[in-house]
């Protein structure tokens, strides 16, 4: 993980402060050892440094680099539990972080 990101996570700075300091939240280059684990941690960090309290399904899918259909499968399997504003599902930051931490760290597992 980027040293600037680690520093940010130890402080109370915002995502805007991180980007202003020249940080990036991109996934590691293909071929690096442990790409899946590092990408998973960076997705979790993306959620943590966000100032948003909740996400629409489209926003959450983009934040974790998955399709909206994949997010819906996790919801249907009760792995990811949205809140609702009327009929609109909303993923809270806390629920998103909980769900990310619950994902397997090795490839090949089926979640939904």
Model description:
It is a single chain. Helix content is about 50%, strand content about 10%. The protein has about 110 residues and is mainly α. It has 2 domains: about 1-50, no CATH class; about 55-105, Multidrug-efflux Transporter Regulator, Chain: A, Domain 2 (Orthogonal Bundle). It has a 3-stranded antiparallel β-sheet with strand order 1-3-2. A hairpin with a 2-residue loop joins β2 and β3.
Q: What is the number of helical segments per DSSP (H or I, 4+ residues)?
A: 6
Q: For the CA atoms, what is the radius of gyration?
A: 15 Å
Widest β-sheet, arrangement of strands: 1-3-2
Please name the CATH topology of the largest domain: Multidrug-efflux Transporter Regulator, Chain: A, Domain 2
Please outline the major beta sheet. 3 strands, antiparallel
Uncertain stretches: 7-20, 24-30
Helix/strand/pairing category? mainly alpha
**Beta strands, count:** 3
Estimate the helix proportion, in percent: 40-55%
The amount of beta strand, in percent, is: 5-15%
Distance between the termini: 28 Å
Overall 3D shape:
globular
Average predicted confidence as pLDDT: 74
Structurally, the number of domains stands at 2
Task: Please trace the helix and strand order, writing H or E for each element.
Answer: HHHEHHEEH
**Which CATH first-tier class of the largest domain would you pick?**
Mainly Alpha
